[in-house]
């Protein structure tokens, strides 16, 4: 799905800014064709005509992709005009059609037709053949879907996404490698839809994002006939890309209706409000990075089936992931960081289990920062090799059309072999083997108690982190008070309090000079032995 969406997004982006354009209309059009063909798309035109300094191309069809996801675009008209000052203006027809189709992993086929309206669009291209800058202006980009067809069955899928006042630049430097960079600002994005699921449940949604900004760059080493299927080869040849995106205020509403698991009616409405978020990505042979951050947001849900509104809020959140993607003999660095701060819940939720407000309502937070080394045993973006097809039955009872009805034993054997192959696929390793992990920070603040931990674990020679060596040091504050409170309000049954305290005493020791602080020192030794505060527990 990621590769399919990435491929389609690249094609749509190129449509809004013809790549590798030159200073004459013919060169602009031909370079556009060359770009699409270089990434595995075909370009067909119905006709073209030239009147003075204007080239008009009619009935353009751009199509391509893999079996899992194909995209085709139909443009009724493209008008390219020599402005007489070394620049070329490109204007697309105000309405074009896009069709997405393919095959889901489970084997079902789908098709989604879309209509895209871009009234008032204009792109102005300047520069030299090997160094072109495209300035684009789109007052409106409006994308609408009405149906989705799955396995021949058409289902309504009314959705609309509209971008307002999108402007920016797309810069191309031709050579070895080709280099691209872009920047785009959009005043607002609005969206709405009415989606029906397989059980006739319906979800209506609507919302908006303000102040969208995006920018990125790509260095492409050469032409690839199908970037989606040749990503691994492209990375090894030097493909590198990065980008970032940010948005201001986010507002969304939704309501749903359907049946629950017991066949009873289920309905609800919800709202989401956020002050903004940002995201960034990078990809090259050296690794993949993904980061996302969110400013303050709150969410609420009401339903007749729930006796009170469900709502929570977050002051901020972030996630940062960096992974190697290329197979190498030596271990490579990785990192993962995650944080949530200022998490709060509505009082109605608290009252469910703490009506007397015995527990503190202070905002909760979580911080996790990990880094280390891992071995990559196979290239992450390498396409799986096609398996040879093995006949389900090769006995005399097989026919030209398949297995004969009187061969149940062989059918059962074939089914068993298929199940075994499925189990083998399911057991396929991930390709990542961590050999060293550092806990740079673990911090949890919840219900008035705090926990902090640091440590480092390493795999033994020829081993894995399933049996590591190393140490972890953790400190706790307010845990004893929290246990007492949980017992007093009945969340920990009184007959289990003794066991909970014994467990605490086994893993945590009091900190000298403090009444409610404890610490744990975990030591992992060769052979799988584990010690807690000097006492062997495994």
From TrEMBL:
Keywords: Signal. InterPro entries: DUF2125. The keyword Transcription does not apply. Residues 1-21 form the signal peptide. Residues 408-424 have a biased composition (Acidic residues). Pfam families: DUF2125. Residues 388-424 are annotated as: Disordered. This is DUF2125 domain-containing protein.
